[in-house]
Amino acid sequence: MTMHRPYNLVAELTYRCPLRCAYCSNPLGHTAVHDGLDADAWARVFREAAELGVVHVGLTGGEPTARPDLAAIVAAASDADLYTHLVTAGIPITPEGLETLVGAGLRSVQLSVQDSRANASDRIAGVEAFERKLTFARAVRRLDLPLALNVVLHRENLARVDEHVALARRLGAHRLELANTQYYGWALTNRAALLPTRAQVESAAARVEAARREPGAPEIVFVLPDHHTDRPKPCMGGWGRRIVVVNPEGLVLPCHAAAELPGLEFYSVRERPLSECWRDAPGINAFRGEAWMREPCGSCPERTRDFGGCRCQAWLLTGDAATTDPACALAPERERMLRVRKEAEHPAPDLVYRGASIP
Amino acid sequence: MSDADVVFEARLQRTLDERYHHRHPFNLRMHAGELSPEEIRTWVRNRYYYQTRIPIKDGLILAKAQGPAFRREWIRRIRDHDGDAEHSGGLALWLDLAEAVGLDRDSVETLESILPGVQSACDAYVEFVKSHDLLESVAASLTELRAGELMRERAAAWEAHYTWVKPEGLHYFRARTTQAPADAEEGLRFVLENAKTPQDRDRCVAALERKCQILWNLLDAVDAAHARPRLARHAQLRLDADEPMLVLPERAVRLNDSGGEILALCDGERTAREIAGELRRRHPEVPAVEDDVHHFLAEMRRLGALEHGDHRA
Q1: Where does a domain end: B194, B210, B225?
Q2: Which site among A5, A54, A55, A149 would you substitute to test the B interface, given the most B Cβ atoms closer than 10 Å to its Cβ?
Q3: CATH number of residue B9's parent domain
């Protein structure tokens, strides 16, 4: 087997989150788990990750700043010589807390807002958080850390790309990620309320293009959602290829949603070294490389670019994780994606908030 | 003028308000008297390359025109630049300026040591005119709407701040204070008359934006040559399997050995030109190694890996 070197470790430190976002893509079944791995266990994971070749670590969750021992975890990642990046909703962390993390070796921050307007952002999050997020963003810039702003896009906020860009500029973000909602986990419950129409997506894409041409514009990441394109997304840059996820329980995964797929066995860093979990777990090897691919993927020239699309989406839409992602126009079960697309044309039902969150 | 024309002209003017290079940090420093003689000389030498592209661009525009009336007017621009005889016209005046700031006239005229970023910006302008229609090409020239005012400010600023420059060098600026507004008036009239549909108007605004970007890029390249770059605080240079790797918030970039060598020289003390000179000294066998250095530094700045450093000598 070829050696698959991961470059990026996604360290999911907890499932806890003070927000109740209607599009939360965290798994549904694990809300009862508190912080699984302790700081010492994470320190070991970081050292082993660095040995495997990992360069970046993204500390995420849930909400990573809900962990009281976060500074020790940051210090451990930094000691392992990983480039340490915090992915946060900006609460409950305070500016003072951030300063401690910077002292511990934190290098960069991604802050998520649910919208660029306070009421709309708080509506999606299900709690009042917007003003605190802005205070946090200003603290990031005051400490001279690079700030990436993340706004998840959906039917309600897609038309206001200009406002999202203006907010990113006002906050001094070097990068704006306009991320289309991924319909996994809780988000699936609200798909009919959140999925935009193709016309909405195209007009947003044109606004993004214009914003990118503005002098001094931040880097703007915007990818057309695969619900409205004919090509599947190269999910995670390929299954088990560049990105390794360790979830709060210590399971080593190719993506944070993969543990939901039935019949796949993944290994845990509680029982084995990270390298073994990454190289040998049957679940990771199930869709690694190209051997698993059926037609039309197996002989498709696109397979080296899109890796057959997303396994989780294939499973969610067809019940078969090994089939071509229906986001692909060539997929045998393409019809299922076309049916989803039609949901976007209907009036939006009410949002259902994620309620079982652990405070 | 129709309402649509009024709105259209306001859009063109707003584009210039926001994007014309009068707002570029290098221009602001120039007019505030903050540039070193070395920086002035780099600008004069490099801007000459732009000057030489103007008659070529105007020749391309002439070749797109359908009628004698347009050509009769437009051809004046080529005469303004080239003159009616040797040692007359805008290009010759620019070479006078080069001499007045202490440059060798011949070396400027033969386009020695043009920064690669300047060359690509100017070439992009010629390419733009080649590949776009007459309306868009004329719209791109509308940066001249602001050139008269800029030249007036520039002549005054140079007289006040750069007293070491021989005064006869400033004739070019003075000549343009009257030529540019006449050219601009003509160009604007043409664009207003010929951009009839909303799509035409959008194309014109986009062409003017593109041109502003080209002028901006030119000054970026000149500015960068004298900056004293240093690795940004959030950037990390490390060895990965014995090869240099640059690590940034969202990406890791594998560098070749000379990339690592250049970044290691970005210490906030040396200017980009000095770094290029150092690479030349170390690698005399590599052709145009200075260009490679400037290209590489521009790419690193684009990635956010470098802080500009300050310009003070």
Answers
A1: B225
A2: A55
A3: 1.20.910.10
Contacts of B141 (CB under 8 A, 6+ apart): B61, B183, B184, B187, B211
Structure confidence by residue, pLDDT tens digits, A98-109: 999 999 999 999
Q: Please report whether residue B155 resides in a domain.
A: yes
Both B188 and B268 in a single domain? no
Smallest CA–CA separation between B78 and chain A, in Å?
Answer: 31
Strands across the sheet containing A147-153: A219-222, A175-180, A147-153, A108-113, A83-88, A56-60, A8-12, A243-246, A252-253
Residues of B in contact with A108 (CB under 8 A): 234, 249
**Contact list, A175 vs chain B (CB under 8 Å):** 249-250
Q: Are B203 and B261 in a shared domain? A: no
Last residue of a domain, one of B190, B206, B225: B225
Give the predicted TM-score (pTM) of the model. 0.83
Q: Considering its fold, how many domains does chain B have in total? A: 2
Best probe of the B interface among A52, A82, A83, by most B CBs < 10 A, is: A83
From A111, A110, A106, A109, select the one nearest A82 (Cα to Cα).
A106
- Flag whether pLDDT at B84 surpasses 50: yes
Tell me which residue range forms the domain holding B95: 3-225
Average pLDDT score over chain A? 90
pLDDT at residue A359 in the model:
36
The per-residue pLDDT for A180 is 87
Residues in chain B whose Cβ is within 8 Å of chain A: 18-19, 209, 213, 216, 233-234, 236, 238, 240, 245, 247, 249-250, 252, 304
Q: How sure is the predictor about A356, in pLDDT bands with cuts at 50, 70 and 90?
A: very low
DSSP A158: G
The complex's ipTM?
0.86
